[in-house]
Amino acid sequence: MTTLSTQQINNYHRDGFILVENAVPPDVLAQLQSVTNDLIDKSRNVSTNNDVYDLDKGHSSTHPRLNRIKTPHDVHPIYKDYLRSDALVDLIKPLLGENIRMNNSKLNAKAAQGGAPVEWHQDWSFYPHTNDDLLAIGVMLSDIGEEDGPLQMIPGSHKEPVLSHFNNGVYCGAINPEDKAARLEDAVSVTGKAGSLSIHHVRTTHGSAPNMGENPRLLLLYELSAADAWPISGALSVFTGMNQQELWDYFQNNMVCGEQSLVPRLTDVPVVMPLPPPGDASSIFQTQSSGGAKSAFAVKNAS
Ligand SMILES: O=C(O)CCC(=O)C(=O)O
User: Fold this and answer.
1) Mean pLDDT, the chain, as a whole number?
2) Within a domain: 282
3) Residue with CA closest to ligand 1 atom 9
4) Does the bond joining 276 to the residue before it have cis omega, within 30 degrees of 0?
5) Containing domain of residue 10, as a range?
6) Which of 54, 63, 166, 190 has the fewest other C-beta atoms within 10 Å?
7) Is 137 in the pocket of ligand 1 (CB under 6 A)?
8) Is residue 245 part of a domain?
9) CA–centroid distance, residue 227 to ligand 1 (Å)
10) How far apart are CA 95 and CA 137, in angstroms?
11) Considering its fold, how many domains does the chain have in total?
12) 109-147 confidence digits (pLDDT tens)
């Protein structure tokens, strides 16, 4: 499978997400899994969060437990090689056009038996751009079933108003689960075998419950944008703190295909700046916990 069917493209535009099964070539999947398992193994030597690892509660040298490998594309070339392969690029061009940039990558390695939830949010609230031709690809590196804390999406939410992601006046990277406009009762789980992909629009409301399964839930996420979508200064994002040269180099180094554009395409998009920031914005897990996000999943588990 290297292209999306017309129906998949239409479903992406209608629902704001799709599942693409058997998308990763088996040899590539095996390499991605092997490199990832090695990285998890190496986290045994780490005891505090650093540039590579965001550790889960209970992490130790005998029981490695990770929330995340932060920017896998910086850690091993395989992650960028797959992103730039025909197998992936041909899938996303119908959604983002010929000129595509990667803004960031991350590998959410939700540890087995309780690995942290990700509270409901819209990625757009973290990093508004000049237009919303942005999406995230989730590459399943493990089988992800209902008990493993799969991504859950709210169909059609990418066309609805952007919800408040604030708590007590501070950006907390999550909506209030009591917000009726979020329609959380409509959630759909995106489950699949290793080698499947989820693709979701930057404005689609999504989250995921703790992993209650026996194995880590390994989801490699690439955040991509049309090259003429430029981040709005002040966003809580990977670009914050870069000088002009660093930003330019980053953009150039992370082109997936086509050419970088110097002419941002401005469209009528709803923007709320994610400011003031929470105490620790080093990952979504820290943003949500230090920002005091209300937990949908803790409430659900307790009931
Ligand atoms: O890993 C997950 O379940 C959700 C990840 C996510 O939404 C994010 O990191 O922005």
Assistant:
1) 94
2) yes
3) 284
4) yes
5) 6-295
6) 63
7) no
8) yes
9) 23
10) 12
11) 1
12) 999 999 889 999 999 999 999 999 999 999 999 999 999
Please name which of 288, 238, 236, 303 lies closest in space to residue 117, comparing C-alpha atoms.
Answer: 288
d(CA 197, CA 199): 6
Predicted pLDDT at 301? 45
Q: Which tokens is 46 given?
A: 């780490």
CATH number at residue 52: 2.60.120.620
Q: Write the pLDDT tens digit of every residue in 28-74.
A: 999 999 999 999 999 999 999 999 999 999 999 999 999 999 999 99
β-pair partners for 153: 188, 206
Which pLDDT belongs to residue 238?
A: 78
Residue 300 lies inside a defined structural domain of this protein: no
Q: Of all helices (H) and strands (E), which one includes residue 67?
A: strand 66-69
Q: How far is the CA of 118 from the centre of ligand 1 (A)?
A: 6
Give the closest residue to 103 by CA, choosing from 242, 199, 201, 224: 224
Per-residue pLDDT tens digits for 16-32: 999 999 999 999 999 99
